[in-house]
Amino acid sequence: MTPAPHRSHTDDLLSFITASPSPYHVVASAAQRLEKAGFRELHGTDDWTGATGGLFVSRAGALIAWYVPEGAAAHTPFRIVGTHTDSPNLRIKPAPDTGTSGWRQIGVEIYGGVPLNTWLDRDLGISGRLALRGPDGVPRSRLVQIDEPLLRVPQLAIHLDRSVNEGVALDRQRHIAPIWALGEPREGELLHRVAAAAGEDPADVLGWDLMLHDIQPPGYLGVDREFVVASRLDNQISVHAGVTALVDAATGAAQPAFIPVLAAFDHEEVGSGSETGAQSPMLERILSRSVAARGGSDEDWSRALAGAFCVSADMAHAVHPNYSERHDPDHRPLPNGGPTVKVNVNQRYATDSTGIAMFTAAAERAGAPWQPFVSNNAMPCGTSIGPLTAARLGVTTVDVGVPGLSMHSARELCGVRDPGYLAAILTTIMVGD
Question: 38 with 169, same domain?
Fold first, then answer.
């Protein structure tokens, strides 16, 4: 039987997630797909003059990609899809080898808003990147991914803590060091294990950005397999949809009427305040340089922004069946009902009526449903990169996202149809038909 279109898209999404346990792997996976579609990577030291076609710049856990149709004027407006590559998790400390009471453990820091109980009693691997000694004293980088059950954060047995089901918070400082062996701590043991997995000499390792990930593979759930369950759906659903849309826009029969752009930032979960986060000038500088590379002036740059539109795509909350009182009574998105358009009048989201109109018109053209979302007035509202991008570039922006449950958990859930709906809408926006 021919698989339904939504299953074909989500099968590909699950492959993307499996290959991308860290932000650096997300960028590598996206770059690989872009290169396969004919995109080429540019570096800051390259001459970009006259560059057209599919192009991208990658930096650590961030990637900016765009497509310039042949003959596109320098003032051609942008159609931007903004996403983020990072997910809340546990990250390994600089001096990681520790332990107590006869157990060898690994020291970790909490990254982002982690529901810590979801990381208990799970088989954990290690991923990220190593900074290595390179030629001429210039460091080089190497990705590492260990999909083996190396570590585990064991939960205290209920016999030793009868209050465990009464909502007692996990001690954030002392009780999250995962175990991985018996015996006394051995300095340098983790470094040797990770370097060996990467095929590198531990003596060449100068630094690292390493984190833990749940090694359980993603899959489908439900009586009719109508749900997707996986780690890092927030926000790899949106990165994958953005890559899919950009490739479709670049390789479709009709040339885009705009310059389609994918901006995948790092560190959104901790405020986007880094050289690769949405608060940085990375996107602004790359886009302005792309205008100049086509012979554009400051006036062309201003015109390109004046006609620009940005879709900030991030995971959204579906109504929770066991906690429906936490949601607005008149806005209760459900899985497989299409992406949500997220509204907050206090500008935690950048959506306004113009953005809503542009997104929903594209949804109509794509034949995809959508749902409105607003937070309960009594609950604090989350945010995403939308307000940051809108403020930085001064462009009309709409915040959207696939609705799901267990956001930020070690294993999240969404509807099987919604990732494909999102990709279809983003493609329509990027092409501009």
Answer: no
Q: Quick check: helix, strand or coil at residue 419?
A: helix
Count H helices and E strands in the chain, helices first.
9, 20
DSSP-based three-state secondary structure for 144: strand
Q: What DSSP element (H or E) covers 282?
A: helix 282-293
Distance of alpha carbon 321 from alpha carbon 311, whole angstroms: 29
Residues 59/241, Cβ–Cβ less than 8 Å = no
Q: How far apart are CA 109 and CA 119, in angstroms?
A: 13
Handedness of CA 10, 11, 12, 17 (dihedral sign): positive
Q: Last residue of a domain, which of 148, 180, 214?
A: 214
142 in a structural domain: yes
220 in any annotated domain:
no
pLDDT tens-digit map of 224-265: 999 999 999 999 999 999 999 999 999 998 899 999 999 999
Could you give the number of structural domains in the chain?
2
Instruction: Give SS3 for 103.
Output: strand
DSSP assignment string, 70-93: TT--TTPPEEEEEEE----EEEEE
Q: First CA to last CA across the chain, in angstroms?
A: 32
Residue at 225 is within a domain: no
CB 433 within 8 A of CB 259: no
| Residue of 195, 61, 172, 203 lying closest to 126 (CA atoms) | 195
Residues 33 and 115 in one domain: no
Query: 119 near 153, Cβ under 8 Å?
Result: yes
- Residues 160, 290, single domain; the answer is no
169-219 pLDDT per residue, tens: 444 445 678 988 888 999 999 999 999 999 999 999 999 999 999 999 999
Q: Is the pTM of this model over 0.70?
A: yes
Other beta carbons within 10 angstroms of residue 49's beta carbon come to 9
Residues 273 and 376 in one domain: yes
Task: Determine the Cα–Cα distance for residues 99 and 182; give it in Å rounded to an integer.
Answer: 9
| Beta strand segments in 318-407, E | 340-342, 371-373, 396-401, 403-405
Q: What's the CATH number where 109 sits? A: 2.30.250.10
User: Which residue range forms the structural domain that includes residue 355?
Assistant: 5-87+231-431
Q: Is there a single domain that holds both residue 248 and residue 325?
A: yes
> What is the spatial distance between Cα 271 and Cα 62, in angstroms, rounded to a whole number?
14
